[in-house]
Amino acid sequence: MEIALLKDDEFQQFRAWLHKTAGISLSPAKKPLVSGRLAKRLKHYKLPSYGEYFRLITQSSGSDELQIALDLLTTNETYFFREPKHFEFLSKEVLPHARPGQPFRLWSAASSSGEEPYTLAMTLAEGLGSMQWEIVASDISSRVLEKARTGHYSLDRTEGIPKHMLVKYCLKGTGSQEGTFLIDRTLRSKVQFMQINLNNALPRIGEFDVIFLRNVMIYFDMDTKREVVSRMMPYLKSGGYFFVSHSESLNGISDSLELVKPSVYRKP
User: Fold this and answer.
1) Number of compact structural domains in the chain
2) Of residues 15, 71, 139, 209, which has the active-site annotation?
3) What are the angstrom distances between the C-alpha of 144 and each of 77, 110, 115, 161, 213?
4) Does the active-site annotation cover 139?
5) pTM score of the predicted model
6) pLDDT over threshold 90, residue 250
């Protein structure tokens, strides 16, 4: 069965739905991405058009297919120790001042398939020694969270992980698991994965010493950025740090944080 082309009006339907649901603003240049990622779902249901698929996902209340479509359109590339200067700053400037006697809490708020929160887990394990710590890792996509919880990755994903951490925290697969590695169980137990849509009211997950919100705001328009950051501010402790990616800035988005250095902010 030949899949029809994604028409402009159908693309506009998906754009409007994705913005309303996830706050993501798709540029016209993303039309091939939408077409490519959803084509296999049209084949699966033997549907003649993207318009028919849109009707399927929006007219079925509580549809599993709605979540599948959302997962396909919101999953982005990530890797271990991405933008390494942030982890250096965390190790040298933040962790040495962690207060003993209370758990150090960190929120990885766009955790994708787990590479960022596990990078943070290695960094905290190295920097905090015997002190208690915990990580909440959230994403809008249930599919990538499922993958992240396993802590199981292909060996070609190890690039960027420092050698001593690779040896200490990553178990190389053998036999049927050859070519893969598993994040150490103790490390995995300290990371709690949760499905959270940053564009909705946030669940009660407590306050954090550090929040990472990296490589997600590039998909939001200015109003959505302001709303998301404002929604997250009560969750950051006074004196806590807020990280965005090197290609992002909170300029014009929030005045409740002070710039420490490019892409690193602190709550007074």
Assistant:
1) 2
2) 139
3) 11, 11, 11, 21, 17
4) yes
5) 0.84
6) yes
